Structures are given as C-alpha cells and as structure tokens.
Amino acid sequence: MNQTEIGTFISSCRKEKRIPLLYSSTLFIAILVCLICNLAIDGIVSWSLIPASAIIFTWAIFFPVLYLKKRGIIISFISLSMFTLPFLFLISHFTETKEVFTIGTATAVPSIVFLWVVTAIFHFLGKKRISTAAGISFLLSIPFLFTINIILSNMIAEPLLDIWDIFSALLLLTAAGISFLLQKKNS
Q1: How confident is the model at residue 17, as a pLDDT?
Q2: Distance (Å, whole) CA 10 – CA 7
Q3: Would the pLDDT of 13 be above 80?
Q4: 3-state SS string over the chain?
Q5: What gap in Å lies between CA 53 and CA 178, rounded to an integer?
Q6: How far apart are CA 157 and CA 59, in angstroms?
Q7: What percent of the chain has pLDDT over 70?
C-alpha cells in the first residue's frame, strides 16, 4: 500500500467508528443527566436508576450492530437474550413491582425463543430464499401471537382473543401469502 491508500484506509476506519462513539457518548450523557436531575431534585439516587438501566440495556443490544455492522447482529441477539431477564429483574426491583419480572419473564422467554427460531430460518434458507424465510416467519408468528395471548390470559385475565388478535393473524397470513408469491415469482 502506498501512503495515499493508507491515509484513505485510516480515514475510512475513523468514519466507521464515529457513529458507535457518538451513540455511546449520547447514551452516557443521558445517564449523567438523569443522575444529576435525580440528585438535584431528591438528594439521592433513586428513580434515575430506571432510565440508567434501560439506557445500558439498550446500549448492550445496539452497540454491536453499530460497531460491527452485519457481523454484530448475532452478537446483539445474544445480548438481548442474555440481558433481558436481568433487566426485567432490575426494573422490577427499582419499581418494587414483582409483576414486571413475572409477567415480563413469562412473555420474554418465548419471545427470545421465537427470535432465535426466525434467525435460524433465515440462516438455513439463505439469501436466495429470503421471501420464503419471511413467509415461514409470518406463519410462525400466528401461533406465537396466540401463545403470548394464552400466557397473558392465564396471568392477568386478559381475554384470550379479541378483534385485534384476529386482525393481526389475518395480516400475518396475508404477509405470508405475499412472501410466498414473491418467492415463486423470483424463482
């Protein structure tokens, strides 16, 4: 490499790292603002722990994608899988509301499993059959929707079905059909 190519490479590397650095700095400033406001208003750190926890959780999930681009997606999914339950526990503890953890965990665990199932579908079907992967994912979303409804119905006496659930299922079925038609058309 000549000197010009090295300079261009270094410049592009610096540009690539600006967005993750700006993102991290902005979130850090947000945490500081919350802590300062909480201390100024109450004289102790109390409610600011809730937004601080949420900001750290958000950073852990999105930073890998910003820093590593496509290679960071799986790392972000791993972060989401690892940190969701501890985050729910912290929020439950800070708000002194145990339902945040119990209901949150009951819906988060199947949601994370569903995320990994969809990820596996897209991985195994590959780039050439993205529409098929999307169609299968849309179809699988329908039983997932009803699974979450059953969980919530058992925990908080939420109705098992309402008009919006049926409407959502029909939209997902339509999206699946369109995805399969697009795949057939592109084959």
Answers
A1: 79
A2: 5
A3: no
A4: CCHHHHHHHHHHHHHHHHHHHHHHHHHHHHHHHHHHHHHHHHCCCCCCHHHHHHHHHHHHHHHHHHHHHHHHHHHHHHHHHHHHHHHHHHHHHHHCCHHHHHHHHHHHHHHHHHHHHHHHHHHHHCHHHHHHHHHHHHHHHHHHHHHHHHHHHHHHCCCCCCHHHHHHHHHHHHHHHHHHHHHHHHC
A5: 40
A6: 34
A7: 91
CA distances from 51 to 21, 22, 61, 94 (A): 20, 19, 15, 10
- pLDDT, tens digit, for every residue of 86-116? 999 999 999 999 999 999 999 999 999 999 9
Confidence of residue 136 (pLDDT cuts 50, 70, 90): very high
- The residue type at 59: W
Q: Which of 90, 81, 68, 94 is nearest to 16 (CA)?
A: 68
